[in-house]
Every structure is written in structure tokens, then in C-alpha cells.
Amino acid sequence: MSMLSRRIVAEGLGTALLVAVVVGSGIRAERLADGNVGLALLCNALATGAGLAALLVALGPVSGGHFNPVVSLSALVQGTLSPRTALAYAAAQIGGGIAGVVAAHAMFGEPALAWSAQSRTGLPMWWSEFVATSVWWASGSARSAAGRASCPLSWQAISPQATGSRHRHRSPTRP
Questions:
Q1: CATH code for the part of the protein at 1-109
Q2: Segment 32-45, tens digit of pLDDT
């Protein structure tokens, strides 16, 4: 498998898993919270954050961990992705998003694809989407600008043992 193919698969898989976490944790939280909307939102946000962190650690080094066509578009504009790669990422992300919804719905016995019963539109909703996407884009841009080695969210920073790293700092005076 070529490196580009691996990157595209990582974007599609990462997007599918992220959407499955977001949708699945939303369904589960709503059912468990028994009408407590604040608790359901908190549970969904915590699961989403943990899922995103895990996906960035696992797949970020392969593809950059965009998992969002807007982030890939930003990388294209910044010149870090070619038009061909950005288009392939976007197609994988859209397909992954649909697959993630289908997977989450299957886990909870929901119809594979269905319109939401809750209206999610209006200025506050669009503003929150804009803010969330902007933060995601800004954090990805900052990470790209700083370089992967400086990214604190990496297995090397969390635990050298997790990567099987056997490198230990040794003083030149000690064997």
C-alpha cells in the first residue's frame, strides 16, 4: 500500500471512528441521563474529547489527523496538502462520516440513516460549529507550524514504554 493510500485510509477510518464516538456517545448519554440535558451534554463532550485524543495519537502521525474537510481545506490553502490529496482526504472523510453514523446507529438499534428529530439549525448552532471548527483548525495549524516533534500529544510524550522505545539517556561518563 502506498503512503498516500495509508494516509487516505487513516483519514477515512479516523473520521468514521470519531463520528461513531460522537453519535454513539450522544445516543447512550441521552438514554442514560433520563432527561438531564446538561449531564447528557457533559457525557457526550467527555467521550468526544477522549475519542478525539486517542484518534489523534493513533492516526495523527499517519495522516495529520484532519478528520474534517475544513481542516484539509485549510492545509490545502496553507500549501501543506496538494489539491489531489486534499480532494482524496475530503472524499474519505465524507465517506467515513457516513460510515460512522451507520455504525453508531447499528450499535443502538437505530435506523441506519435517518433525519434527526431535533432541529439543529439557527444562528447559535452555526456559530458553535464555526467556533469548534476554527479551534480545531487553529490547533492543527499550530501543530503543523511547530512540527510534530514538539506536539505534546504523542506516545513519546505520554509514555516511552507505550511505543516500545528503549532509548534511555545515558551520561557520557556512565556505561
A1: 1.20.1080.10
A2: 999 899 999 999 99
Find out whether 84 and 57 touch, Cβ atoms under 8 Å. no
Q: Where are the alpha helices (DSSP H) in the chain?
A: 3-33, 37-63, 69-78, 83-107, 123-146, 155-158
Report the Cα–Cα distance between both ends of the chain, in Å, rounded: 42
Distance CA 100, CA 16 (A): 4
How far apart (Å, rounded) are the C-alpha atoms in residues 19 and 33?
21
The CA dihedral of 20, 25, 31, 32, to the nearest 10 degrees, is: 150
Backbone angles phi, psi at 154, to 5 degrees: -145, 155
What is the 3-state secondary structure of 47-88?
HHHHHHHHHHHHHHHHHCCCCCHHHHHHHHHHCCCCHHHHHH
Is the pTM higher than 0.70? The answer reads: yes
Q: What is the pLDDT of residues 6-28, one digit of tens each?
A: 999 999 999 999 999 999 999 99
Distance CA 156, CA 166 (A): 11
CA distances from 128 to 125, 133, 135 (A): 5, 8, 11
